[in-house]
């Protein structure tokens, strides 16, 4: 998985059992309801924006794009955060999203 940050890869190397369990939990959470993969990634992106987590915003942007979400849809999901998470969180996330999009061109 090329989208994983180095800190997570290091976690996997040092704690392979925990990383495996975490991956299984993540996979099961995606499959536990009616949302399709694209929608799940947009939801996860929104959560990451609200948390102000740069790594998660970048990761879920890459995942969303890989799952067929358009750049316009990704940017729209981030814009929706302006009234919930606030302008500073939204604009920071938009910067991270745009950097991922630009890198994947």
Write the CATH architecture name of the largest domain: Up-down Bundle
The CATH class name of the largest domain reads: Mainly Alpha
Number of helices: 6
State the CATH superfamily name of the largest domain.
Answer: AhpD-like
What's the count of strands? 0
Low-confidence stretches: none
Average pLDDT reading: 93
Q: SS-based structural class?
A: mainly alpha
Name the quaternary structure: single chain
H/E order of the elements? HHHHHH
Number of domains: 2
Largest sheet: none
Strand content: under 5%
**CATH topology term of the largest domain:** AhpD-like
Separation of the first and last Cα atoms: 18 Å
**Percent of residues in helices:** over 70%
Give the overall shape.
Answer: globular
Q: What Rg is obtained from the alpha carbons, in whole angstroms? A: 14 Å
Describe it for me?
This protein is mainly α. The protein folds into two domains: 1-33, no CATH class; 35-103, Up-down Bundle (AhpD-like), CATH 1.20.1290. Helix content is 75%, strand content 0%. It is built from six helices and no strands. It has helices spanning 6-14, 16-31, 37-51, 54-66, 71-79, 87-103. The protein is globular. The protein starts with 5 loop residues before the first helix and ends with a helix. 20% of the residues are buried. The model has no long low-confidence stretch (mean pLDDT 93).
């Amino acid at each position: 998985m090329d989208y994983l940050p180095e800190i997570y890869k290091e976690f996997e190397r040092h704690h392979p059992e925990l990383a495996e369990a975490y991956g299984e939990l993540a996979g099961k959470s995606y499959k536990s309801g009616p949302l399709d993969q694209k929608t799940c990634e947009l939801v996860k992106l929104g959560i990451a924006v609200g948390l102000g987590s740069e790594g998660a915003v970048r990761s879920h942007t890459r995942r969303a794009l890989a799952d067929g979400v358009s750049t316009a849809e990704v940017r729209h999901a981030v814009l929706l955060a302006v009234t919930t998470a606030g302008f500073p969180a939204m604009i920071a996330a938009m910067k991270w999203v745009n950097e991922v999009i630009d890198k994947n061109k």
